[in-house]
Backbone:
């Protein structure tokens, strides 16, 4: 069953409406019309000030295996419309059978800190292909970006203390667990309890023991002693099965025996009760017993806000075990990333920018073939400019806030980097897989170069992101024109 579910090709892992549109383009002879789509989110998750991009590697792997096999085509042939006739012509299904991706993709590298409205991915190629990819790309990028961001918040709160990701049992199924472990690691967690994620993705694995181990013996002292005998080099004793502080004393006794045998107890784990009070008391007991280096691991429904609170209470926790709240992104379980058409090529070869209007300014799309230019100075990120590569950057070097055009900022005399890099050309991957450790390091470095007020959990300072002033003016013009033609249309029909 698991093998069957995840066996490529996975071209059917899309919404049916992508195939109904693909069919329409094919019938109209427009399948190969060139188009540009952008994948972006509008607002960072968790009411925060930033997000950490993740999931590109899995997206590229998806694209590399993309094709419809005969069983996919047989299934599509079985679909019918409301007249019970087949939904798709056989010639279209033959076309899908032959289809190989020829799109170009530019993407921000994983681990990049990104903001609302900025394309994380730009797909350029035949409109039929671009459209089919909307759903799988969103599926693959939205979730990992969400979890990498949650992990960045949690690890920021933890500071120099390691965060262990313990989420497998609460994750959204098998793939939800594996991709959450990967994204959590990108966002800064130090290890996972998920052994399969360790094997498949090379993430360090860590584990202590559960209450059941203690409960299976007559006494806690015996449980710790037997655990130490079995695994003297990995002793983190869970001390809260009966009486937490008594448990810490028992752990110290076994720690002393271990030391006599030439091993050192790693620490203890607290999994209930007042974690500030208990960690402070536990620290004192451990120190007095000669274990000032022993770690105090804490788990139990912890998130970034609880970490911050515990730290402000002077807690002595040194390692954080975080499951549910991390891998389910508990307080915001989905990132609202979207994938929008932004330009099409005309018969004469020129590109026509496309715009979608909305009552809400933030939902009016940004037309063109976009790139993001990031300005920095002295290791600090200062602002991002979204510009249209078809026009280049306006010499006025000014960004305009797309939500409030009165807010403008000049960006000159700084170093600039363009964030989107070419990762796929004519359907072929052109960048090798990046090491997860390098991606994690990129996230770490970029988070460090963000002003702390932007990293704040509550009501963060807004990082300056704006449209190149030329792009802003062209977009504004398109908005006015689109509104006007709508009014004229209404007048004609009324
Ligand atoms: N000092 C503290 N300050 C703020 N939050 C805390 C503090 N100590 C523990 N917490 C958090 O409070 C919540 C306590 O949850 P709950 O009442 O379900 O746990 P418990 O009764 O201590 O343990 P359990 O039910 O697992 O035996 C957890 O989310 C925990 O992380
Ligand atoms: O709390 P999380 O952040 O999800 O971390 C993982 C939790 O999983 C384990 O217990 P489990 O929740 O299975 O049982 P318990 O709550 O009864 O200890 C562990 O003891 C943690 O409490
Ligand atoms: O190793 C642990 O302590 C652990 C692993 C998974 C879930 N909770 C705790
Ligand atoms: Mg629990």
Residues:
């Amino acid at each position: 069953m698991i093998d069957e579910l995840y066996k490529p090709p996975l071209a059917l892992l899309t919404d049916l409406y992508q195939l109904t549109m693909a069919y329409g383009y094919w019938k109209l002879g427009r399948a190969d019309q060139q188009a540009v789509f952008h994948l972006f989110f509008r607002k960072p998750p968790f009411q925060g000030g930033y997000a950490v991009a993740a999931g590109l590697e899995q997206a590229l792997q998806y694209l590399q295996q993309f094709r419809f096999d005969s069983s996919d085509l047989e299934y599509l042939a079985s679909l019918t419309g409301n007249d019970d006739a087949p939904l798709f012509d056989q010639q279209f299904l033959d076309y899908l059978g032959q289809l190989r991706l020829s799109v170009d993709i530019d993407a921000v590298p994983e681990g990049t800190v990104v903001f609302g409205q900025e394309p994380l991915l730009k797909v350029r190629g035949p409109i039929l292909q671009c459209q089919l990819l909307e759903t799988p790309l969103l599926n693959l990028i939205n979730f990992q970006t969400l979890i990498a961001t949650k992990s960045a918040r949690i690890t920021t709160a933890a500071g120099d203390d390691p965060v262990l990701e313990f989420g497998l049992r609460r994750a959204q199924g098998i793939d939800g667990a594996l991709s959450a472990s990967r994204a959590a690691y990108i966002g800064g967690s130090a290890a996972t309890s998920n052994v399969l994620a360790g094997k498949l993705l090379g993430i360090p694995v860590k584990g202590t023991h559960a209450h059941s181990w203690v409960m299976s013996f007559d006494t806690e002292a015996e449980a710790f002693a037997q655990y130490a005998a079995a695994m003297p080099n990995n002793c983190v004793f869970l001390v809260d099965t009966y009486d937490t502080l008594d448990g810490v004393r028992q752990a110290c006794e076994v720690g002393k025996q271990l030391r006599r045998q030439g091993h050192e107890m790693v620490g203890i784990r607290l999994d209930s009760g007042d974690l500030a009070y208990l960690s402070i008391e536990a620290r004192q007991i451990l120190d007095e017993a000669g274990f000032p280096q022993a770690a105090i691991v804490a788990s139990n429904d912890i998130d970034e806000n609880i970490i911050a609170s515990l730290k402000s209470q002077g807690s002595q926790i040194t390692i954080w075990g975080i499951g549910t709240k991390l891998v389910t992104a508990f307080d915001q379980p989905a990132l609202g990333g979207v994938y929008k058409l932004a330009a099409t090529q005309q018969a004469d070869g020129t590109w026509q920018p496309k715009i979608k209007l909305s009552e809400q300014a933030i939902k009016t799309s940004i037309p063109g073939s976009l790139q993001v230019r990031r300005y920095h100075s002295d290791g600090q990120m200062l602002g991002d400019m979204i510009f249209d590569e078809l026009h280049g950057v306006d010499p006025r070097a000014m960004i305009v806030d797309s939500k409030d055009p009165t807010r403008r900022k000049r960006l000159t005399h700084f170093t600039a980097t363009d964030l989107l890099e070419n990762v796929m050309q004519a359907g072929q991957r052109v960048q090798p897989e990046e090491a997860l450790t390098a991606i994690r390091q990129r996230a770490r470095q970029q988070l460090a170069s963000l002003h702390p007020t932007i990293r704040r959990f509550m009501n963060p300072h807004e990082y300056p992101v704006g449209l190149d002033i030329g792009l802003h003016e062209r977009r504004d013009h398109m908005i006015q024109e689109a509104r006007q033609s709508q009014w004229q249309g209404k007048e004609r029909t009324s």
